[in-house]
Amino acid sequence: MLGTDDVELARLGLQHQVWRPVMLAAWQRAGITAGWRVADIGAGPGYATVDLAEMVGPAGRVVSVERSGRFVAAAAGACRLRGLDNVELIEADLMDTDLQLAGFDAAWCRWVASFVPSPARLVATVARALRPGGVVVFHEYVDYGTWRLAPRRRVVEEFVGEVMASWRASGGEPDVALALPALLADAGLAPQHVAPLVFATQPRHFVWQWPAAFIDVNLQRLVQLGRATAPWAERVREELEEAKNDARTIMITPMVLEIIAVKQ
């Protein structure tokens, strides 16, 4: 939705740094360990791929599936830089019914179901990829409208609403995790752990940089798409700056649902 240029690569890198401790804790809860075969589903530029490769070690294997050739190239570069030879990179569309994945001990899928035209097809692909008893970890938005500032900022809330509207107009669903429990059950995946994930952050904290960077990048996108005017975008930036300079400010980030499910 936000492209694959250098700016987006950098933003995704920042996002991964913010979420990395949460991600690693989820993998540990799921039991991912040395020697496992793991599928990174919708891997983007491979930030999680390299972490998985290091976790499973030389005796393990990571297969990274990503549609963007630019992102696949970035992942390949990251693997070379770290000297990882236990990674296979596949450039493919997850909606392709010919995609052959099977026999994996685990799968990792973050912020993918919310962008694909058929979350049911995605979940079915993940289910086919796992061996019986295999585990999948999903991180997907469940209530994007929780993204708020306290004290409240009206134009920033308008921005969040426009993000959701533009997301749906592009064929995605920001609150896709509401549908995941039924989709998992239909695919033979039984949830073992479910928990909401949300940050409450302040401007002086590192986490603040993640939503702030998204606002900056997405405002440009909304203006380019004709969904927002430049003066309105500037008002959003001004409100965010006012919030940043207000010592009372707390930002509540969009709520993510963590689901760890096992193939029956």
Q: How would you briefly describe this protein structure?
A:
This protein has 264 residues and is α/β, with parallel strands linked by helices. 43% of the residues lie in helices and 24% in strands.
Structural class: alpha/beta
Residue-averaged pLDDT? 96
What Rg do the Cα atoms give? 19 Å
Strand order of the largest sheet: 3-2-1-4-5-10-7
Estimate the helix proportion, in percent: 40-55%
Q: What percentage of amino acids are in beta strands?
A: 15-25%
Point out poorly predicted stretches.
none
Order of helices and strands: HEHEHEEHEEHHEEHHEE
What does this structure look like?
By secondary structure, this protein is an alpha/beta fold. Helices cover 43% and strands 24% of the residues. The chain is built from 8 helices and 10 strands. It has a 7-stranded mixed β-sheet, with helices on both faces. Strand 2, helix 3 and strand 3 form a beta-alpha-beta unit. Helix 5 packs across helix 7. The radius of gyration is 19 Å and the shape is globular. The two termini are 34 Å apart.
